[in-house]
Structures are given as C-alpha cells and as structure tokens.
Amino acid sequence: MNEEFIENLKDIYKKATKKNLLSVALKSQEMIARYYGYFSKNTKKDISMLNHNELSEILGEIKKMIGDN
C-alpha cells in the first residue's frame, strides 16, 4: 500500500504543478519526503507509520483539491 500511495503522490505532484496549484504540489512533495524519512527526526509520527485508512483519507483530500475524482 505505501508504494502505491507514493506513486499516487507523485502523480498528484505532476497534476498540481500543471494546474499551478503550488500548495498542493508542495504538500505532496513534503509527504513523499516524510515517507522516506527526511523529516522523521522532527515528527512524532512519519508517513510510514500511517495506516491504510489514514493514507486513503489523505489521498482523497488531495485528489479533491486538484479536482481528480
């Protein structure tokens, strides 16, 4: 599930940059970085510790923001 989620975030980043939704693009890049542990020292719970429902909810919210239903 996590690798699929990361691939979805990469797709969201591409779509967001094309639509000039820079805040969405930045958030997706931040989440990818958290997944790979770049911010793990500063966060109590990094993205790799999220469960399936939390990941799906976040992904749904981001897709709604860019109009990709």
TrEMBL record:
It comes from the Bacteria. This is Uncharacterized protein. It comes from Candidatus Cytomitobacter indipagum.
